[in-house]
Design brief:
By secondary structure, this protein is an alpha/beta fold. It has a single domain (3-355), classed as L-arginine/glycine Amidinotransferase, Chain A (5-stranded Propeller). Helices cover 27% and strands 23% of the residues. It has 10 helices and 16 strands. The strands form 5 sheets. It has a 4-stranded mixed beta sheet, with helices on one face. A 3-stranded mixed beta sheet has the order 4-5-6, sandwiched between helices. Strand 10 and strand 11 form a beta hairpin.
Length: 357
C-alpha cells in the first residue's frame, strides 16, 4: 500500500466504541497510571555511561550529546531530572543546561522508559511507583544499576514501591489512561521475562499495574531485537481509543517487523479504534538495516511534543502534521535523534514522566 493510500485509509476511519475481547475477571484496580499527555511535575532521564554496553568511545560521546539535546529541549517545557552516578555529574553538566537537575542515582544506559519508575496514583490519590521489574530485556544486557533505578527513585521521593509481579518494560505497553492497554506478546509472554506465566496471568498483572480494564494483544516478534519488539516504536495512544501508528510505505513480506506491524494495525482496526497511519521515512540519514526510524517514538511533555526527524523531508513533514492534529495547542519540536535509532530506540524510550500530584 502506497503512502497516499495509507493516509486516505486512516482519514476515513471514525471513532467507534471498543468491542474487543471479553474482559478477565479481576478486582477493581487500586492503582491508576495517567496518560502521558496529562500534566507532569517533571521528566526523568538517564545518563549513558557503560563501556560494556557502548564500547565505541566516539559513539558513546554522540549518544551523550543526543541525550543532553533531548533533556535541554524538554527543560524548556518542564523540569528535567537526569539520573547519573555522582562521579559522572561533572561530565554531564558540561552538556546539560542549568535547567536540568542531576541526581546521584547510578546508571548504565539511557532507557528510562524501561528501567525507570512507572508512576501511578493509589486509591487515596497518593503517588506511588507501580513497579514492573526491569531485567535487561530478558538478561540481554548488563543492568546491575539500571535494574535498581526504579526502587532508588522511589526511595529518594519517599514513595511506596508497589510490585506488579511482572517483569518487563513500560516501553512494551501503551495505555490510553482510560482503561485500555495494547502490547506485543513477544515482549511479555516470553520466558526471558515471565517464565511459566500464561498470557492471561501476565495480562491481569499489567491491568492491575496500570489501573486498566481492557487489553489488546498482538503477537509481535520474538528474538529479532533486544526489546522483542516494543509497541512504543510502532503505535501510540493519543487519546481515549485513538491511535497513531507508523507503518512501512512498501511492506516487505520477508521482514518480520513489517508483517507484525500490519498484524497489529489490523487488530487495532478490528477492535474498532480510531487509527491514524503515517509512513516510515524512506530517505533517512542512517541506512543500516537495524536502524529504528520510528515517528511513533515521540515524547509528550507540558505544552510540547519532542519528536524525531530523520532527514526525509516529505515524511518528516507528514509526521509533524500528524502530531499537530493529535496534540493541538502543543508545540511540536523535531530533533535529530539518530544516535538513539542506531541502538534501537527513540525519544520516548529515553524519558519517563512524573505526573503532577
Amino acid at each position: 500500500m502506497r503512502r497516499r493510500e495509507l493516509l486516505k485509509t486512516s482519514a476515513m476511519l471514525g471513532t467507534i466504541a471498543f468491542t474487543g475481547q471479553p474482559l478477565l475477571a479481576m478486582q477493581k484496580p487500586d492503582l491508576y497510571v495517567p496518560p502521558e499527555e496529562a500534566p507532569h511535575e517533571l521528566t526523568f532521564m538517564q545518563w549513558p555511561v557503560s563501556r560494556r554496553v557502548h564500547p565505541d568511545t566516539a559513539f558513546l560521546r554522540d549518544l551523550k550529546q543526543t541525550i543532553a539535546d533531548i533533556a535541554n529541549m524538554i527543560a524548556a517545557f518542564e523540569p528535567v531530572v537526569m539520573l547519573a552516578a555522582a562521579a559522572d555529574h561533572t561530565q554531564a553538566r558540561k552538556l546539560l543546561s542549568s535547567a536540568v537537575e542531576l541526581w546521584d542515582i547510578p546508571t548504565e544506559d539511557l532507557w528510562c522508559r524501561d528501567s525507570g519508575p512507572l508512576f501511578a496514583f493509589n486509591s487515596t490519590r497518593k503517588r506511588v511507583v507501580s513497579h514492573i521489574q526491569f531485567n535487561g530485556w530478558g538478561n540481554k544486557q548488563v543492568h546491575e544499576s539500571d535494574g535498581q533505578i526504579a526502587s532508588r527513585v522511589a526511595e529518594r521521593l519517599a514513595m511506596e514501591l508497589v510490585s506488579s509481579g511482572a517483569t518487563g518494560e513500560a516501553g512494551g505497553i501503551e495505555h490510553d489512561g482510560h482503561g485500555l492497554l495494547i502490547a506485543h506478546e513477544s515482549s511479555w509472554v516470553n520466558n526471558n521475562r515471565n517464565p511459566g506465566l500464561p498470557r492471561t496471568e501476565i495480562e491481569n498483572l499489567l491491568l492491575q499495574a496500570y489501573g486498566a480494564e481492557r487489553f489488546i494483544w498482538s503477537p509481535g516478534v520474538w528474538g529479532e531485537d533486544i526489546t522483542d519488539y516494543h509497541i512504543d516504536s510502532l503505535a501510540r495512544f493519543t487519546g481515549p481509543g485513538r491511535v497513531l501508528i507508523n507503518l512501512p510505505d512498501e511492506p516487505d513480506e520477508a521482514d518480520p517487523f513489517h508483517q507484525a506491524a500490519l498484524d497489529t494495525h489490523d487488530r487495532l482496526l478490528a477492535a474498532q479504534l480510531q487509527v491514524d497511519v503515517i509512513p516510515e521515512p524512506y530517505d533517512h540519514r542512517v541506512q543500516t538495516v537495524d536502524f529504528v526510524a520510528s515517528y511513533a517514538n515521540y515524547y509528550v511533555c507540558n505544552g510540547g511534543v519532542i519528536a524525531p526527524q530523520f532527514g526525509d523531508a516529505e515524511t518528516d513533514a507528514i509526521a509533524v502534521k500528524a502530531l499537530e492534529r493529535h496534540y493541538p495547542g502543543r508545540q511540536i519540536v523535531a530533533l535529530n535523534v539518530d544516535a538513539l535509532g542506531e541502538i534501537g530506540g527513540g525519544t520516548h524510550c529515553a524519558t519517563q514522566q512524573l505526573p503532577s500530584a
